[in-house]
Amino acid sequence: MNKNIIFIICVLFVACGQKKTNEIPAEKAIVSGAEWLDTDGNRINAHGGGILYHGGTYYWYGEYKGDSTYWNPKVPSWECYRTEAGGVSVYSSTNLADWKFEGLALPSEQNDTTSELHYAHVLERPKVLYNEATGKFVMWLHVDSHDYAKAAAGVAVSDSPAGPFEYLGSFRPNGQMSRDMTLFKDDDGKAYQVYSSEENQTLYISLLTDDYLQPAGTFTRNFIGLSREAPAVFKRNDKYYILSSGCTAWDPNQAEVAIADSMLGEWTILGNPCSGPDADKTFYGQSTHVLKVEGKEDAYIAMFDRWNKTDLIDSRYLWLPIKFEGEKMEIPWQESWIISETFK
């Protein structure tokens, strides 16, 4: 064969190989209800969670559930399915699609049965904020006894978003029960705890101290007697939104959203924001967090857990983009979607 021809073939071969090597991988779709795996190929175990954006990275904190689900007969009022509490897991991502397991930000206690963090107790709904004034990452979570009678909020701090977090203890904020909860940090740096109280009949909004470690003593009682839980709070165009669920234990129900001009102001109920198949059951999910996508205009993701009450570790995640028309929000069902195509 002519040497020139051989040379040309070799050049083309190298060029094609180089092109293939430089190809940008296709963006991973968000597929709600599927089994989500981390970058090591293991199932993501971060239920009832929330996401913190810090230093160009998203940190997803959630309940790290044990692999054995059991029913607690000491709670006859509802189907109290439980797993051993593994603590609070944390995953990191720069694109919201590929998640690296960073470990346990707050592990449960394996030996000391008197510890509030013992695996036989309840550790749920972890949320984390960064406090610029103190340089600390502050975690709040629902801490409870196995029969849900304690109804307290626990607080932990860390110098790093991935932990380890130092547990400071629990209390009933403002002297009232605290179960399902979330945190919200406003543009002025003030932070709030939002929590189900009074046997889950009333939703409290509580201003926190400047270090985010305690209630500041200012709070409001909201949706009195309406039994709202699983709150998720966000701000858009100077309006505040609370997305929440009803109280039907592990079983799905209809979501509801409310709007206000300030966190401690009067809230107006807008109704069910979900649309599409099974919208009246929140697509068989329950709210846990609303995430603002950084660098994208008017981009918000509603995060839900689809609980599998008899195999809780296999509960799945539903993440759906929110659409807005004026102040009205809509969460339409989409089984699969891509962030860059949805949010420009």
Could you describe the 3D structure shown?
The protein is mainly beta. The protein has helices at 3-22, 339-342, and strands spanning 30-31, 47-54, 57-71, 81-93, 100-107, 122-131, 136-144, 152-158, 166-171, 181-185, 191-197, 202-208, 215-222, 229-236, 239-245, 256-260, 268-271, 274-275, 286-292, 300-306, 316-321, 323-325, 328-332, 336-337. The strands form seven sheets. It has a four-stranded antiparallel sheet with strand order 2-3-4-5, with no helix packed on it. A four-stranded antiparallel sheet has the order 6-7-8-9, with no helix packed on it. The longest helix has 20 residues, at 3-22. Residues 5-16 have low confidence and may be disordered.
Short description:
It contains 2 helices and 24 strands. By secondary structure, it is mainly beta.
How can the largest sheet be summarized? 4 strands, antiparallel
The helix/strand order is HEEEEEEEEEEEEEEEEEEEEEEEEH
- Provide mean pLDDT, rounded: 94
CA radius of gyration is 22 Å
Which descriptor suits the 3D outline?
globular
Give the CA-CA distance, first to last residue: 53 Å
Counting H and I runs of at least 4 residues, what is the number of helices?
A: 2
- Share of helical residues: under 10%
- What strand line-up does the widest sheet have? 2-3-4-5
- How many runs of DSSP E, i.e. beta strands? 24
